[in-house]
Amino acid sequence: MMHAPEPDMNWAVGRLSHIEVTHAGQAFRLGRYPIHFHLNGHQNSSYVRGCSVHRTFNRAINIHNTHDVMIEHNVIYHIMGGAVFLEDSVETGNTLQYISPSL
């Protein structure tokens, strides 16, 4: 979880590139997702790029009240819940591109 004590300060920057995430997250637990941007405000230097997220127990990538994050070139496979989830629908400027979800 990337979470800053104050939004828009860039104190919790997440730069995940070319990693494998597997058997992560906690089933049926709110807020326990494998990759989770949580209440960070604007984060134009954060990204999840070229990653593999598979066999997880709760979603894959969750963006909660965080803006301007780049999510690209990821493979998401065999997860519980939504692949990429915008939690409150107030998140803006996030780029979600070249994602390959499958069952």
Automatic annotation (TrEMBL):
Key word Signal present in the record? yes
Where does the CEMIP beta-helix domain lie? 14-97
Establish whether keyword Transcription is in the entry.
no
List the keywords (alphabetical).
Answer: Signal
**Which superkingdom is the protein from?**
Eukaryota
How is this protein named in the record? PKHD1L1
| Organism, as annotated | Bugula neritina
